[in-house]
Each structure stands twice: as C-alpha cells, then as structure tokens.
Amino acid sequence: MVAEILRIALVVISVVSAIDLVRVASRRSQLGVNLESVALGAITNFFDTLGIGSFAPTTAWVKFRKMVPDSFIPGTLNAGHSLPTIAEALIFIVLVEIDPWLLVFCIGAAVAGSLIGVPIVVCAPVRVVQGVVGIALVIAAGLYAMKNLSLMPGDGAALSLAATSFALAVAAHFVMGALMAFGIGLYAPSLIVLSLLGLNPIGAFPIMMGACAFLMPVSGVRFIRTDRIDLRVVIGIAIGGVPAVLVAAYVVKSLPLVTLRWGVVVVVVYAALLLLRSTLKSPSAGERVATAVQS
Over the stretch 127-177, which tens digit does the pLDDT of each residue have? Predict the structure, then answer.
C-alpha cells in the first residue's frame, strides 16, 4: 500500500515535470535536442541505475567538454537527471522488497534535509563545506574498500533494520538530503551507510533512488526558470537517460556486488578529490553564482 502511494505520487510528479519542462523550453525557443547530451544522459543514467551515481560523471564530462558554463551545472544536474531518476525509483520500488516504513522515513528525512539545506548553503562558507564533505567521502570510501577486502563484516541480507540502525539510517538521509543542495550526490553515501548498517545492498536501491526522485523535481522546477540553464542539454539528458534506466534495471540483479562497490569507491574518491582541491583556492565568481542559484 505504501509503495503504491509512492509510485502514484512519482507518476504525477513526472508528468507535471515533463509538461513544465516542455512548456518552458518552448517559450524560450530551446525545445531542440543536443545529441551529445542524449549520449551523456544514456551513459550516466545507465550507471546511475547500478548505484554509481550520475552527478560526478556528468559534472566531469560537462566541464571537460565545456558543454555549459560552470554556473549552469547545478541546474543541468538537477533538472536533466530528474525524470530518469523518477524512472529508477518507479522500477526499484516494484522490483525490490524493502521495509516500507524504512523507505518512507528515509525519503521523508532526505526531503526534509533538502529544505533545511538551502539556508545552510546560503550561510556556510563554501570552502568549509567542501572540505568537510570531501573528508567525509574519503572516510566512507575507505570503509567501503575495507568491506571489499574482507576487513569488515560482510554484507547483510536484511531488508529491514532494528530500531537503532533504523534511526541512524533516517538521520543519515536527513544529512544527505541537505548535502544535495551543494550538488553532492546521494547515491554513494546512501549505499555505503545502509550496507554498513546491515541492509542488503540491493535493498538500498529503492531508498536512495526514491529519495532523489522526490528531491530533484522540486529543484528542477526552480532551475528551469532561471537564466543559467540550457534546456536543450537538459532535455537531451532526459531523453537519453530514461531508456538507459530501463535497460540497466535488469542488469543490476546479475552484476557482482563487489564490482559495484569498487565502482562506488572510485566515484566517491573522485568527488572527494574535487571537493578537497576546491578548498585550496578561493571560489570563482561562477561557483558563487552557481551556489546562489541552487539556494
């Protein structure tokens, strides 16, 4: 019953978001499609469905190819990946059985955290936040690597958590939701935290995808109304991403979890290095503007 309510809500959100995106793009004469962004959306969302995350690889490619100005990146991430992420959540809420209350409370905590995260983004010094999050990601990646090397207890088979672990999972997703305001992807930290708490890693998929599926459309609606976004790139990512999600959803069940974890470690370390490098220099004007737009 709970899962069905979530699915209905996501379908409504996806339809409203798609109509709004097309309407705004048409009004701005940006209803065309950037073919490179279609390929980017397909590749990043395929691996996103496997739990690797889409924010870091998308940011890396967009910056490398200079597809959009740096100040456009937050809007590109949140608006472009919104519909594919909703597709992921719809699929995994059906395919993977999980404690419905753990699912609801983690999603609710992440959404609540995103609402709290906006004023934090405005007030906190960017370099301080980047440094703290970067260090946290390095520690998390180290713990996950230790699991792969059998230096920590193996993955659990649980699809629900005891009271203490339940509370820790909810609290962690509140923090992760707040960090989404900074463009910090939720997938890798969520997968790590839930696995370390004893949850079956596959059971983490509907939680982390559901949290982002409810978070990102809200952010995307705000971004597409700003001047700092190229809606042709956003539409391309969405067009390439949704079919890729449908294909990847059936690969997850046969993909070795060790391979998945190493992929997560690589992406987390990469994101951490970018953040820590940013603490060594003053934020550029473009970065300040991007943060302001996100808030």
Answer: 766 676 677 667 777 866 877 787 765 566 788 899 999 999 999 999 998
> Is residue 106 a contact partner of residue 170, using CB atoms and an 8 Å limit?
yes
Cα–Cα dist 261/265, whole Å: 6
φ and ψ at 139, to 5 degrees?
-60, -45
Phi, psi of 158 (to 5 degrees): -70, 145
Q: Which domain holds residue 125?
A: 2-294
Strand, coil or helix: 70: helix
- Number of domains present in the structure of the chain: 1
Is the pTM higher than 0.85? The answer reads: no
Q: How far apart are the first and last CA of the chain?
A: 34
Length reported for the chain? 295
Determine contact, residues 33/23, Cβ cutoff 8 Å: no
Instruction: Identify which of 58, 7, 29 has the alpha carbon closest to the alpha carbon of residue 238.
Output: 58
Burial readout 83-117 (b: 16 or more C-beta within 10 A, e: otherwise): bbbbbbbbbbbeebebbbebbbbbbbbbbebbeeb
The region that residue 183 occupies, defined by phi over 0 for left and psi between -120 and 50 for alpha, beta otherwise, is left
